[in-house]
Specification:
Layout lengths: L1 H4 L5 E7 L2 E7 L2 H6 L9 E3 L6 E6 L12 E5 L2 E6 L2 H19 L4 E10 L2 E6 L6 H10 L3 E4 L2 E4 L4 E3 L5 E4 L6 E4 L13 E8 L11 E3 L1 H9 L9 H12 L3 E4 L5 H13 L1
Parallel strand pairs: 2-4, 8-14, 14-16
Antiparallel strand pairs: 1-2, 1-3, 4-5, 5-6, 7-8, 7-9, 7-10, 10-11, 11-14, 12-13, 15-16
Helix pairs in contact: 4-7, 5-6
Length: 273
């Protein structure tokens, strides 16, 4: 850390997100000003110099010597990125920051999941990257559902899911590159208040598959959520209590599905029954 400290920093700031204290510093004011665009929703600045994780960002454009042509990113003493592509460095920063907050959050449990609201209740779609949850969320939003998240379901002790509203990150091609879509570009709107979970849909995309889900028990639903819970190993008892509270009032369905647009209307019609 002493070596990183000597690299030379123009400015920094500290902030709180879900009770986690974090700091960022950069070698230029320009770099520092762009970083808050990648912070988690609802972050708040703080004057405290004490942080749990410190990100150090070096913008290559500010460095004239040819020996340093890369954008560099450190998380505490670990180098997270060394790349000439600024977008790649910022994507790494955003991903690591959000994951760290999800694991260390106070009084909230983060589950890898897409979430939408429908008539005052939530649909929760647990799943990791490449499971197709973002495309399903996007199609549900286009059909009139309220957008809550395409990455994390943020649950409280009462089993309610809170908004985690940032731009949807939709993969545009087979290379896995993502493009960000603000929810209003999809003709939708973002949620503002916590909702009870009505449906937990455990579903993975498979080309050509027909959606024929089977019902799971509450206990099985809890295990499916636990498998996607970020803090499951660090705080297993807290996670289990919150997940049980979430699942006990919900219908849990599991099954493969085809294209997201093919099941959007049937899914919403099912909830209307």
């Amino acid at each position: 850390m002493e070596k990183i400290d000597r690299l030379g920093w123009a400015a920094g700031l500290s902030f709180i997100s879900y009770g986690v204290r974090l700091g960022v510093r950069a070698n230029t004011l320009e770099a520092l000003r762009m970083l808050p665009n990648y912070f988690p929703p609802g972050w708040k600045p703080t004057d405290s110099p004490i942080v749990e994780r410190l990100y150090s960002f070096i913008l290559s454009d500010a460095i004239k010597r040819p020996v340093r042509r890369f954008n560099l990113l450190y998380g505490n003493i670990d180098r997270l990125a060394r790349t000439a592509n600024l977008d790649d460095a910022l994507e790494t920063f955003e991903s690591d920051l959000h994951l760290y907050v999800a694991e260390m959050a106070r009084r909230r449990v983060f589950v890898h999941a897409g979430v939408v609201g429908w008539k005052g209740q939530a649909i929760l779609v647990p799943g990791r990257s490449y499971s197709g949850k973002t495309r399903l969320v996007a199609e549900l939003v286009r059909a009139g559902a309220i957008f809550y998240s395409d990455e994390y379901a943020v649950l409280d002790g009462r089993g309610r899911v809170h908004p985690y509203t940032r731009a949807l990150q939709i993969r545009e091609d087979e290379n896995g590159k993502q493009k960000k879509y603000p929810v209003d570009e999809l003709g939708g709107q973002a949620g503002v208040k916590p909702l009870p979970v009505k449906l937990i849909m455990v579903s993975k995309y498979k080309r050509g598959a027909k959606w024929r889900p089977r019902a799971l028990s509450t206990g099985q639903g809890v295990l499916e959520l636990l498998n996607n819970t970020v803090s499951a190993r660090r705080q297993p008892e807290t996670a289990m209590a919150v997940l049980q509270e979430t699942a006990k009032r919900a219908v849990v369905l599991k099954g493969l599905r085809g294209e997201a647009r093919e099941i959007t209307e049937p899914l919403l019609a099912y909830l209307d029954q």
